[in-house]
User: What shape does this take?
Amino acid sequence: HLLLSTFPVRLWIESSLVCNLKCAMCPNKSIPNAKKGNMDFELFRKVIDEAKEFVSDINIHHRGEPLTNPRLCEMIRYATNAGLRVRLHTNATLLDKKKAEEIIKAGPHWVSVSFDGFQKDLYEQVRKGAHFETTVSNVLGFLDARKRAKTRRPYITVERIDFAHHRDRMDESQVNDLVHQFKQRGIDEIILKK
Assistant: This one.
């Protein structure tokens, strides 16, 4: 047995195992619905209270879509008030104007958006159940909400998986147009993952 001499400095907390999409590459869709749900807020508080002395940051996401948890903003606030840096990853399909403003006010340090396929046909093929225009609007609206709040927090990134088998279908002008829109509105970083 291997014994660690220190506690972890980063935690991943599954705030919700529920997801509103059935993405092509995601294993979450194979989990029976009966086993999916939202993390109880009292359990979340217990985890934060026990971990805040040795953890420096937490990710309030893993397989599910965190925005499906109605108490997500309370979780963010509770963790930031405990002195932790909070990271959040979302598909942004539920990130409407009201939710964007709530999240900005809750104060996470970093928010990352999965946005695979920077053009409508590829995006909707990969992100089953999502609508390209809605997600684009939500991401741009989130950037605008941060600007209206006159804050640089959270650091906002968009992550795109490079699906090699789709490269021949990529329309570079559409991709470049979306990249330009995100940059114009103040995106902090666009990440391309293999």
Remarks:
- The CA atoms of residues 21 and 129 lie 5 Å apart.
- Helices lie at 41-51, 72-81, 97-106, 120-126, 132-148, 172-184.
